[in-house]
Specification:
The protein is α/β, with parallel strands linked by helices and 359 residues long. The protein contains 13 helices and eleven strands. Bound molecules: pyridoxal-5'-phosphate (PLP). Keywords: Aminotransferase, Pyridoxal phosphate, Transferase.
Length: 359
């Protein structure tokens, strides 16, 4: 991902934003944060956007806020897909809850695994991994079973369901990350919660700002997790480009699906292209190291999302005995191909040719 070139597109606007901020002298909260919250809520078709410091905090605060409203029990057991970034697991633990990991099929949470676990968990955190939205069926099943579902939308900014429902507008609440490499990325850490419930938004906002209800009154034990005003100003510049960038990502993904042909390189299912903001384009290769070295030799940089599943990390020793074959397969074989809005047609072709010639 050519991050410097991607950021360069905003250089002039960013300099202006920085100058305005220096002149205004308000570095926490203020106009740019208010504008981002209003515009991003609008963009996601929700009533509220509560900005915060990063995506991990957004998840923690979302869970804590709903627990303080009585919607999650003490020590709530949270069903979570094993195939995710470790932040999702950490957020559950940090919120004082217990992760109940389950396997995915092929990359996301599905109804059958949730159904099989009924009774062993209190709520669900779904994850739109690689930018692909979790199926509507999962939300319908949760609703039918009176289960709250929260979504880790750290990778799915701008994705839409077939009926036009936006990422961030599904379930009880969603948590976004604006880490620099995300489809909507800041120039540092930033995150946000989106939801429709007034009380949930108000409580989350309070927790993110020391638990205070007014200047000198603190009702709950909160944290300091506010989006920097400067990051909000940068995000305001970038939000305008998000849909167009996602369209370009989609075109690249479509070209990969149509033109990569190599039995050693497994593509995601065709359905992968639907309801997807294409944060990552994954392929699955048994001899990953050799493949990555081969591409690198052709000047093609790749990434990996991810190499070790959370339940296999030393940080989660208590989960190390669990086995999730599909998740483990993904973590052993996944390679993320270049997929960003500035990739040129000839570069895409070079990548495809190199992959098709791989033996
Ligand atoms: C799926 C997922 N969840 C949560 C996070 C955490 O976001 P952040 O790095 O902004 O804390 C990330 C980003 O790295 C992510 O990819």
């Amino acid at each position: 991902m050519d991050l410097p070139a991607l950021q360069q597109r905003f250089a002039q606007r960013d300099r202006e934003a920085l100058q305005e901020l220096q002149e205004a002298g308000q570095f926490i909260a203020g106009g740019p944060v208010d504008r981002f919250e209003a515009d991003f809520a609008d963009y996601c078709d929700v009533n509220h956007c509560v900005s915060c410091g990063n995506g991990l905090d957004a998840l923690i605060i979302l869970l804590r806020a709903d627990q303080s409203l009585g919607n999650l029990p003490q020590n709530a057991r949270i069903l979570v897909p094993a195939h995710t970034y470790i932040a999702t697991f950490l957020s559950i633990v940090e919120a004082g809850m217990i992760p109940v990991p389950v396997d995915v099929n092929p990359i996301l949470l599905t109804v059958d695994v949730i159904e099989a676990q009924l009774g062993s968990f209190d709520a669900i955190v779904a994850v739109d991994i690689y930018g692909k939205l979790v199926d509507d069926e999962v939300y319908a099943f949760a609703k039918a079973n009176n289960l709250h579902i929260y979504t880790d939308t750290a990778q799915s900014h701008g994705a839409k369901t077939a009926t036009g429902v936006k990422s961030g507008a599904r379930g009880r609440g969603s948590a976004f990350s604006f880490y620099p490499t995300k489809n909507l990325g800041a120039m540092g850490d930033a995150g946000a919660i989106t939801c429709n419930d007034d009380l949930l938004a108000r409580t989350a906002r309070q927790i993110a700002n020391y638990g205070r209800s007014s200047r000198f009154v603190n009702d709950v034990k909160g944290v300091n997790s506010r989006m920097d005003t400067l990051q909000a100003a940068f995000l305001n510049n970038r939000l305008l480009f998000l849909d167009n960038d996602n369209k370009k990502r989609y075109k690249i993904a479509q070209t990969y699906v149509e033109q990569i042909e190599n039995e050693k390189v497994k593509l995601p299912e065709l359905k992968f292209l639907e309801e997807n903001a294409i944060h990552v384009f994954p392929v699955f290769v048994d001899d990953r190291e050799k493949f990555v070295a081969y591409l690198s030799g052709h000047g093609i940089q790749t990434n990996c999302h991810y190499a070790i599943a959370p339940h296999q990390q030393d940080a989660f020793k208590e989960l190390n005995h669990l086995q999730f074959p599909q998740t483990e397969y993904l973590h052993q074989t996944e390679v993320s191909l270049p997929c960003h809005p500035l990739l040129e047609d000839h570069e895409i072709q070079e990548i495809i040719i190199a992959i098709n010639e791989y033996t």
